[in-house]
Write a structure and sequence with these properties.
Number of strands of chain A: 7
Shape of chain B: globular
CATH topology of the largest domain in chain B: Rossmann fold
Radius of gyration of chain B: 19 Å
Oligomer: heterodimer
Distance between the termini of chain B: 44 Å
Helix content of chain A: 40-55%
Distance between the termini of chain A: 57 Å
CATH class of the largest domain in chain B: Alpha Beta
CATH superfamily of the largest domain in chain B: Thiamin diphosphate (ThDP)-binding fold, Pyr/PP domains
Strand content of chain A: 5-15%
Number of strands of chain B: 14
Helix content of chain B: 25-40%
Largest interface: A-B, 53 and 52 residues
Strand order of the largest sheet of chain A: 1-2-3-7-6
CATH architecture of the largest domain in chain B: 3-Layer(aba) Sandwich
Structural class of chain B: alpha/beta
Order of helices and strands of chain B: EHEHEHEHHEHEHEEEEHEEHEHEHH
């Protein structure tokens, strides 16, 4: 059903090609960089050098495969586990570390916990902690793009737990009614903190929920970067042709804890984890590249070494950045501070000056 | 100038704003074909089409969540929540998302959404069509809260809300949607936020009110005047930002304060005003600050006439304040 009054959008150019083989090595490099970043950050958190971290390990192919099917002008509405999406959108490792540290160079000025970053220059909307809220927002941005006749899609990233949220239902429902150019990209990593996927829904798959909203749902192996790429590419093409939204369920497994505050041993066994690790997307792509003669053990060894070096060096440099100005807490509440905020800032200045507040 | 009521003023102002700026659009339940359950958007779908007057599915979180997405993208959505009582499914989107977007993105992603919602009692609406829960929102940094009390203020404040760079909750006192008329300018005169209006000057007691409580406050002041008590009535107009200077200045003059709102008393907006007076005008006070408010009960249906503050209760409180000092 076309929305009354919305003129048809120009047809999308066809993108039926499979994932270009020559790009696979690049994807692999990025997957390794994301994995190394995760490993390093878990350690940095234990060392007390960052306050918190939410690892994505196990979801690299899903995140990078999806990102590679998007265009720079598309809008990404992430959850808080989308570090590899940010990297794939071109965000620098340094910018990410600045956010993890909340230093003076942090694009979001230390306002949120690690992993809740946002980068306007690459249309990566700032994440939040409540589950699923970005889903309706992605639909709204798509409705705006429809009205501006912009040939773009919006994509919401979320997990299996979010499919139980109010905004999942509202967002998919609105998207179906208004036929918005939106991709709902669910990384089903099997766990919402301690709750397994079966405890979120009785549905056999998450993808099938789309049929109730009147649009396609696609189940894809999230460890297969090519399959993910193709699913997102096709959903994007449908959306740009005016055919509306698609729900994609990428089946993955969360190798790490929910966050550094979580101990998965309380709710899952090593056997489960090890079985999942057999399907590690990084090992899988490596094997494929080696078999195709595009990669070698030597180049692999060098890549891991280089990535570790790059991550360590970049983090150490970010650690040396200036701390935030404490007065910045009063910025960005409103475009222009209210008289009350200005007064509180004056009070704050006096507390700093008198040494009552010690930054 | 044209004589009209508040609903007509809102309707006309929405129309003018949409004519002026193609980025302005409306969304909400029953606002298009039906023109809104209070007819605030009557006729607008005819002029602007269903792309700019969007009848949505019945989901408040869907309305506000999508409005946020539109605002991030650069449009100026004005969302209608049919009754303030039904806003809670969108509470997460408003307090966790909308109000925090600018802040949590370090200024990268401002989200300017205007949320219009009829609020308050006096229409025999019972628990779920009568409440006045502005304090929940005033307590959340990052969103402005505006309450007009006249048709002219409805226009001037709504124009400012649409111009603003930040989220605005625009609460419309449905009890006086049609019961009052007034002259409304036709031009683009904005009423700036944070400027209270002295409705009636006085020297013995200050009565602070907003929205549908302004008319009974004025009625009380007239009664008090007949009994030799000079009451000043101040319409706050915007709760966030609050015109603190006007509140303090009035009490410095009169030495007595009566605060009126429909909402329950405990942690209501009046508590903030009372705190403000104790912090910044204590030595001007000649009597305890009085609050004339809804009681700390849920909003009753059959007995709303004894729940809602009225001119008699305001008069009584003002006389008590004058008598004790």
């Amino acid at each position: 059903m076309a929305e009354p009054g919305v003129p048809p959008r120009p047809a999308a150019k066809t993108t039926a090609e499979p994932f270009p083989d020559e790009a696979l090595v690049d994807v692999y490099r990025l997957m390794v960089l994301a994995r190394v970043t995760d490993e390093r950050c878990l350690m940095l958190q234990r060392q007390g050098r960052i306050g918190f971290y939410a690892p994505l390990m196990g979801q690299e192919a899903a995140q990078i495969g999806a990102s590679r099917a998007l265009a720079p002008q598309d809008w990404v509405f992430p959850a808080y586990r989308e570090l590899a999406v940010a990297l794939a959108r071109g965000v620098s490792l340094r910018a990410i570390f600045d956010q993890l540290l909340g230093n003076a160079d942090d694009a979001i000025k230390g306002r949120q916990m690690p992993n809740h970053f946002g980068f306007r220059d690459v249309n990566f909307v700032v994440a939040s902690s409540p589950i699923g809220t970005q889903i309706t927002q992605a639909v709204g941005a798509a409705m705006a793009a429809q009205r501006r006749h912009d040939s773009i899609v919006t994509i919401a990233f979320f997990g299996d737990g979010a499919t139980s949220s109010n905004d999942f239902h509202a967002g998919l429902n609105f998207a179906g009614v208004f036929q918005t150019p939106t991709i709902f990209f669910c990384q089903n990593n099997q766990w919402a903190i301690s709750m397994p996927r079966e405890r979120q829904t009785r549905s056999a798959t998450l993808a099938e929920k789309a049929s109730a909203y009147g649009f396609p749902g696609v189940l894809v192996d999230g460890n297969d970067v090519r399959a993910v790429y193709e699913a997102v590419r096709d959903a994007r093409s449908r959306a740009l042709s005016g055919l509306g939204p698609t729900l994609i369920e990428a089946e993955v497994y969360r190798f790490g804890p929910h966050s550094t505050s979580d101990d998965p041993k309380r709710y899952r066994t090593d056997e489960q984890l090890n079985a999942a690790k057999e399907r590690d997307p990084i090992g899988r792509l490596k094997a494929e590249l080696v078999a195709a003669g595009k990669w070698s053990e030597d180049s692999d060894h060098a890549l891991w070494e280089d990535s570790r070096h790059q991550v360590a060096q970049t983090f150490e440099a970010a650690e040396k950045a200036r701390p935030l100005d404490p007065r910045s807490i009063f910025e960005d509440v409103f475009a222009t501070p209210t008289p009350r905020l200005s007064e509180e800032r004056t009070e704050f200045d006096a507390l700093l000056r008198d040494g009552v507040l010690k930054p | 100038m044209t004589e009209m009521n508040l609903v007509q003023a809102i309707n006309r102002t929405l129309r003018d704003a949409m004519r002026e700026d193609p980025n302005v659009l409306l969304l909400g339940e029953d606002i298009g074909v039906n023109g809104g359950v209070f007819r605030a958007t009557d006729g607008l779908i005819k002029e602007f089409g269903p792309d700019r007057v969007i009848d949505t599915p019945l989901s408040e979180t869907g309305i506000i969540g999508t409005a946020i997405g539109m605002a991030l993208y650069g449009l100026k959505p004005i969302a209608e929540i049919q009754f303030l009582d039904f806003i809670y499914p969108a509470f997460d989107q408003i307090v966790s998302e909308l109000a925090k977007f600018r802040y949590r993105s370090g200024g990268q992603y401002p989200a300017h959404v205007v949320i219009r919602s009829p609020y308050g009692g006096g229409i025999r609406g019972g628990l779920y069509h009568s409440q006045s829960t502005e304090a929940y929102f005033c307590h959340t940094p990052g969103i402005k809260v505006v309450v007009p009390s006249t048709p002219a203020d409805g226009r001037g404040l709504l124009l400012s809300a649409i111009d603003d760079a930040d989220p605005v909750l625009f609460l419309e006192p449905k009890r006086i949607y049609r019961s009052l008329t007034g002259e409304v300018p036709e031009g683009a005169d904005r009423i700036p936020f944070g400027r209270a209006r002295v409705v009636r000057e006085g020297s013995d007691v200050s009565v602070f009110a907003y929205g549908a409580m302004v008319p009974p406050a004025v009625e009380a002041a007239e009664t008090l005047g007949q009994e030799g008590i000079s009451a000043e009535v101040v319409d706050l107009r915007t709760l966030v930002p609050l015109d603190e200077a006007a509140v303090i200045e009035s009490v410095e003059k009169t030495g007595r304060a009566v605060i009126v709102h429909e909402a329950a008393r405990f942690c209501g907006f009046g508590a903030e005003l009372a705190a403000l007076l104790s912090e910044k005008a204590l030595y001007s006070l000649k009597a305890p600050v009085a609050r004339v408010t809804g009681f700390d009960t849920p909003f009753p249906y059959a007995l709303e006439n004894v729940y809602l503050p009225n001119a008699d209760r305001i008069t009584h409180a003002a006389k008590t304040a004058v008598r004790v000092s």
